[in-house]
Amino acid sequence: MTCYYMSGFGNEFASEDPRCPGSLPKGQNNPQVCPYGLYAEQLSGSAFTCPRSSNKRSWLYRILPSVCHKPLISIPQGNLSHNWDEVSPDPNQMRWLPFKFSESSEKKVDFVEGLNTLCGAGDGRTRNGIAIHIYICNTSMKNKYYKTYYIIFHNFIGYLLPSVPQKGNLLVTTEFGKLLVEPNEICIIQQGMHFSVEVFGETRGYILEVFGAHFELPDLGPIGANGLANPRDFMVPVACYEDQQFAACFSVISKYQGKLFSAEQDFSPFNVVAWHGNYTPYKYNLDNFMVINGVAFDHADPSIFTVLTAKSTSPGVAIADFVIFPPRWGVADHTFRPPYYHRNCMSEFMGLIKGHYEAKEENFLPGGGSLHSIMTPHGPDADCFKKASEAELKPERIAEGMMAFMFESSFSMAVTKWGLETCNCLDKSYTKCWQPLKSCFNPKWKPIDKQTWYGRYC
Ligand SMILES: O=C(O)Cc1cc(O)ccc1O
Ligand SMILES: [Fe+2]
After folding, report:
1. How far is CA 367 from CA 14, 98, 441, in A?
2. Is 356 labeled as ligand-binding?
3. Average pLDDT per block of 10 residues along the chain, 458 residues long
4. Is ligand 1 within 6 A of the CB of residue 378?
5. Active centre residues (catalytic)
6. Which of 108, 202, 307, 319 is most buried by its number of CB atoms within 10 A?
7. What DSSP assignment string belongs to 225-249?
């Protein structure tokens, strides 16, 4: 399937389905009668009164307005949870082996049924917090659409894992048009946008849900006007309507205050013929990230790899940063090149899309994850420490064929019962990877080679 896109980040886009030329009203947003007998509907992504620089809204011209649905009724929510008190807090370093696909391929699970909450904090009611979900599914949503409702499912980042590359694509239908999300791409669906997911076999990925902030490109400061994720590499779908008023029934599922609800309606929610605005879904291919890194000495902090940030109200502190670890050159002189040992005032959830992560020799695998909570110490495992301490420091490719990512958050996240028990993937031996580290301390140590220290300490 070919999907068509416009490019840019947060632009004022405008799109008409080519089947209805002139469907976008000219010169005004809500004419007395819209072209083609369409209804005008505004979708606000920010308070009406937000400053212009942060104001987000789009105008949708649709066959029927969204309001024409039957009442919303509570439905089972499977492993989705916003109860952060299900199990006692556990500050230990945690790692999950690849989250398991269903044992029987006979059992059909769609994207909504396959959502499992792993960890999170805060809630949608106060619009402050995050949730990390893992989706594991093998069948497309049929006549069933997933709508985010008012406060929730605010932002969504989905990853496909190349453990099943030929089957791993997601075809995401939205009110704004269709996005084909391939492995190594991310897709952002913003608060309140209807979407539906088609899959092509076993599919697994990660979702970061952010309550109360939009993703932005990080400021570049002294980097200059270009670099990291460049705005032109973000892809926005073009209008593509469905007019299925004769089809029997559609159910639109809403996630509202942490719970799922469903409403029946007798027309497709993807009935938007034309739209314009700066509040849209989008996708981004991580291969387009322009990597910047140290070229002299020392290991730069991972913030240098920030793709998108959802800012808190405290300057420089993110509700969540989306950070990647892409393939790059390692050239730092007289430096321990892998990530340093550290304790962080932010929580770090990491996942692996493909390849082998530089700080762990084993068991951090594609489709798995790790969580290092606020101030929980972590860093390279013992094998990695030994290798990197003894390595000859010539220029080398780091992370070739690899894509790891981190959701770094100022929230202290709680793990759900699904994450600790039901998923049955928790790697109980994780902390053993640091046990072989021995003290190398030698109080009589003298610099052997002045060159090693470039004269600074000798
Ligand atoms: O813990 C991790 O592996 C992520 C990470 C990588 C890095 O290069 C520096 C700090 C950091 O937290
Ligand atoms: Fe870390």
Report:
1. 37, 4, 38
2. no
3. 94 98 97 98 96 97 95 93 94 95 85 94 88 92 62 46 53 93 89 90 90 92 97 98 76 88 89 97 95 96 96 95 95 96 97 86 90 96 93 94 94 97 96 94 75 47
4. yes
5. 299
6. 319
7. SS-BS-GGGEEEE-------TTSS-
Give 62-75 pLDDT, tens digit per residue: 999 999 999 999 99
Pairing type for strands 144-148 and 250-256 reads: parallel
Q: Is 348 in the pocket of ligand 1 (CB under 6 A)?
A: yes
User: What is the pTM (predicted TM-score) of this model?
Assistant: 0.93
Count of the separate structural domains present in the chain: 2
Q: CB of 339 closer than 6 A to ligand 1?
A: yes
Return the ligand number nearest the Cα of 369.
Answer: 1
Q: Are residues 386 and 264 in the same domain?
A: no
Considering the domain architecture, whether residues 296 and 264 belong to the same structural domain is answered as no
Query: What ipTM score was computed for the predicted complex, to two decimals?
Result: 0.98
Cα distance between residue 442 and residue 386, in whole Å: 17
- Best residue for ligand 1 mutational test, from 406, 407, 434 (most atoms within 8 Å of Cβ): 406
My answer on whether 223 and 248 are in the same domain is yes
Asked whether 95 lines ligand 1 (CB < 6 A), one says: no
Is residue 379 located within the same domain as residue 321?
A: yes
Give the ranges where 234-371 is alpha helix by DSSP (H): none
Q: Which atom of ligand 1 is nearest to the CA of 357?
A: 3
Judge whether 149 is annotated as a binding position.
no
